[in-house]
TrEMBL record:
Keyword Metal-binding: yes
Family classification: Belongs to the Mrp/NBP35 ATP-binding proteins family. In the N-terminal section; belongs to the MIP18 family.
Amino-acid positions noted as binding ATP in the UniProt annotation, renumbered to this chain: 119-126
Pfam families according to UniProt: FeS_assembly_P, ParA
Domain of life: Bacteria
Domain MIP18 family-like: 5-69
SUPFAM superfamilies, alphabetized: Fe-S cluster assembly (FSCA) domain-like, P-loop containing nucleoside triphosphate hydrolases
Ranges in a coiled coil: none
InterPro entries named in the record: FSCA_dom_sf, MIP18-like, Mrp-like_CS, Mrp/NBP35_ATP-bd, NUBPL-like, P-loop_NTPase, YlxH/NBP35
Role summary: Binds and transfers iron-sulfur (Fe-S) clusters to target apoproteins. Can hydrolyze ATP.
Protein name: Iron-sulfur cluster carrier protein
GO biological process, one term: iron-sulfur cluster assembly
């Protein structure tokens, strides 16, 4: 005969797929009934009709069969408003300090911040952000992206994310894509979004995104900044002085010249610069020769001006290097280049 203690013990390791915490810790397991090796129980979900029901069911069944259950009968229920409020408090406790400061920003949080910036638009800043994030995640790092390009957000569409974050009261659970937790204003661009995630809080939006998102454990948070040296860059500099910057340019003279302003700004705000990434550096012809469509040397010139290094020269990707999204396949030429870039970033960041 199995016992309630054994069942609870087995379920300690089963996590809510969005909150990444144990169902037991989140108080989501109720009404356990045991008849020999037959178990009945209730799983109380944060919202009715949770799309992850099937995954939770499979994980619970698996855990209980491991301890010898012959049948597992699961009934799904939904939390009451009071229970959801209690859960929000619990999640908030982990995401903000007593002073309301996002816990991620505490010096002892262990989270490293990388701001990806550029002088001009369209040079591949978002492409670099998502591919560097995906490469770090493939290396086993816990990674998040904050799409800080508040008016020109593009990360959800570039990663082909169709889902929206689940909201528990006012806390957003980031959407996970390619093992990366993603938050973007793009998720809240329609009129159904909670007011606090829209206009009135714009001046505090970075803090809002950091504090009202349940990021869970993170090693790296990448920020996709808007191009140029505007308010957002200044806000980020003030709020996240420990962020390190990666500056993206094309080889083109003008792009590299404009990018240098973003670099000078980083120096001014005392953000460390990890290095320069020259994107769209060349197109590799089928015979292996390189066609330098945008000229040459922009990355190097920028790196010299900022007294830093060129971390990578990313060629034009071919359509077959991705299965549709702008995250390039792991074993494609560009995918491999981003893996080696991620290794360099880890190395430089540790110095
Ligand atoms: N190395 C590359 N190979 C092929 N296409 C690329 C590459 N880098 C970027 N692109 C494409 O160029 C376009 C612009 O890239 P991206 O959106 O990353 O630039 P951005 O600097 O973030 O732009 P914005 O400032 O508008 O946000 C996208 O369609 C992207 O898929």
């Amino acid at each position: 005969m199995l016992t309630v203690e054994q069942v609870m013990h087995a379920l300690r390791d089963v996590q809510d797929p969005e909150l990444h915490k144990s169902l037991v810790e989140l108080n989501m397991i109720r009404n356990i009934r045991i008849d020999g090796r037959h178990i009945q129980l209730e799983v109380v979900l944060t919202i009715q009709g949770c799309p992850l029901k099937a995954k939770i069911k499979a994980d619970v069944e698996h855990a209980l069969r491991e301890i010898g259950a012959l049948s597992v009968d699961i009934v799904f229920g939904a939390m009451t408003p009071e229970e959801r409020a209690a859960l929000t408090q619990y999640l908030k406790k982990n995401s903000t300090t007593e002073t309301g400061m996002p816990a991620l920003l505490r010096p002892d949080s262990g989270v490293r911040f990388i701001a990806v910036t550029s002088g001009k638009g369209g040079v591949g800043k978002s492409t670099v952000t998502i591919n560097l994030a995906a490469a770090l995640a493939r290396m086993g790092k816990k990674v998040g992206i904050l799409d800080a390009d508040i008016y020109g957000f593009s990360i959800p569409s570039m990663m082909q994310i169709a889902d929206k974050p689940t909201m528990i009261e006012k806390t957003a659970i980031p959407v996970v894509s390619h093992n990366v937790k993603v938050m973007s204003m793009g998720f809240f661009a329609d009129d159904n979004s909670p007011v606090m995630w829209r206009g009135p809080m714009l001046n505090k939006w970075i803090q809002n995104f950091l504090a009202n998102t349940h990021w869970g454990e993170l090693d790296y948070l990448l920020l996709d900044l808007p191009p140029g040296t505007g308010d957002v860059a200044i806000d980020v500099a003030a709020m996240i002085p420990q962020a390190k910057e990666v500056i993206v340019t094309t080889p083109h003279n003008v792009a590299s010249h404009v990018a240098s302003r973003a670099g000078v700004m980083a120096k001014h705000t005392k953000h460390d610069i990890l290095g320069v990434i020259e994107n769209m550096a060349y197109y590799e012809e089928s015979d292996g020769s390189r066609n330098y469509l945008f000229g040459r040397g922009g990355g190097e010139r920028l790196a010299e001006r900022l007294q830093t290094d060129v971390l990578a020269r990313v060629p034009f990707a071919r359509p077959e290097e991705t299965t549709g999204s702008s995250v390039y396949d792991e074993d494609s030429v560009v995918g491999e280049l981003f893996r080696s870039l991620a290794e360099d970033v880890l190395y430089k960041d540790a110095q």
